[in-house]
Amino acid sequence: MTAILQKTIPYNPLEEKKLPGIQPLAPEAWLMADDAYAGQMAERERLLASRRDEVLQLDARAMAAAQELLHMALDTLDPGAGETARRPDGVRVPVDWEDPLGTLGRFAQQDFCILQKPDSAPEHVLTGAVLCFPASWTLAEKFLQPLTGIHVPVDSYDAGIAARVQRLFDGVQAGRPLWRFNALWYHDPALFQPRSQLAPRDRPHGSRAGYLRSEKQVIMRLPQTRAVVFAIHTRVLGRADVMRQWRAPQADGGGQL
Questions:
Q1: How many helices (H) and strands (E) would you count in the chain?
Q2: Which residues of the chain have pLDDT under 70?
Q3: What value, to the nearest 5°, has the Cα angle with vertex 150 and ends 147 and 153?
Q4: What is the DSSP annotation of 31-71?
Q5: Which residues pair with 231 in a beta bridge?
Q6: How far is CA 47 from CA 52, 53, 56, 235, in A?
Q7: How many angstroms separate the CA atoms of 97 and 231, rounded?
Q8: With contact defined as beta carbons under 8 Å apart, do 175 and 26 qualify?
Q9: Residue 242: inside a domain
Q10: Burial level of 203, CB count in 10 A (0-12/13-18/19+)?
Q11: Which of these, 48, 111, 168, 239, is most buried using a 10 Å CB contact count?
């Protein structure tokens, strides 16, 4: 399969940041399209058609939140949408309010995870997601898991980081999204890379790898349902393009999780 690659990235993915590396984000910047939009959307369409159960899950408790999220996405990218919505590439997608995550998966370039905190629960739980581009995890293993379970087996996600992330999810305010990024070198540029949490973990590929994979991760609260959305914009770039843009030929480390 032909690699689906971006040519540029709007932040320096080689910059080391202390975990969790959270920054404020302008509200209008939560949903974007880039130069790989058409290619990524074709891959999303393929995955939703052929592997839907692997890339989409929605608990009944999250239906209202998923519909609210779809409404926000339509308002951002196609405010005049009705029975169909016009994507940034001009393709029209049917709007199905009974399948909000399926519609989102065919309309927006990002993946979306919905997390809700049950009454008296200590952590947010993953209650819905359209996840076409997993990077070494599977939706099946993480669905209906709390934040600490979602991050198994990430070594750097210790008790201190877990507490800080939970405070972020508790404190994020509607209309004031937050964001961070990660960046890792890969040999394989494929976007769909599921891996069981029980499988052996790859070592960082560093200077041996030809591709940099980076996720812009947005944390935002839905104003009506109060659910938290974790939106993931995946970019994969060839090494030469990364170094050409950011002029750091010496950077060959493993990156951030």
A1: 8, 9
A2: 153-157, 200-207, 248-257
A3: 120
A4: S---TTHHHHHHHHHHHHHH-HHHHEEE-GGGHHHHHHHHH
A5: 112, 218
A6: 6, 10, 10, 17
A7: 19
A8: no
A9: yes
A10: exposed
A11: 111
Question: Would you say residue 9 lies in a domain?
Answer: no
Query: Is the whole-model pTM more than 0.85?
Result: yes
Kindly report, residue by residue over 214-246, the tens digit of the pLDDT.
999 999 999 999 999 999 999 999 999 999 999
Cα–Cα distance, 15 to 103 (Å, whole number): 35
d(CA 242, CA 161): 29
If DSSP codes are grouped into helix, strand and coil, which group holds residue 81? Answer: coil
In a domain, 43, yes or no: yes
Task: Dig out the tokens for 193 from the structure.
Answer: 């890379």
Tokens of 235: 């970019």
Query: How many structural domains does the chain have?
Result: 1
Is residue 66 within 8 A of residue 120, CB to CB? The reply is no
Task: Give the model's pLDDT for residue 251.
Answer: 47
Which stretches does DSSP call E strand in 108-149?
111-116, 125-130
Residue 238 within a domain: yes
Tokens at 137, concatenated: 């995890």
State the residue range of the domain holding 44.
Answer: 23-246
* Burial readout 162-192 (b: 16 or more C-beta within 10 A, e: otherwise): eeebbebbeebeeeebbbbbbbbbbeebebb
Per-residue pLDDT at 247: 79
Structure-token pair, residue 18? 């202390």
**CB-CB contact of 9 with 237 (8 Å):** yes
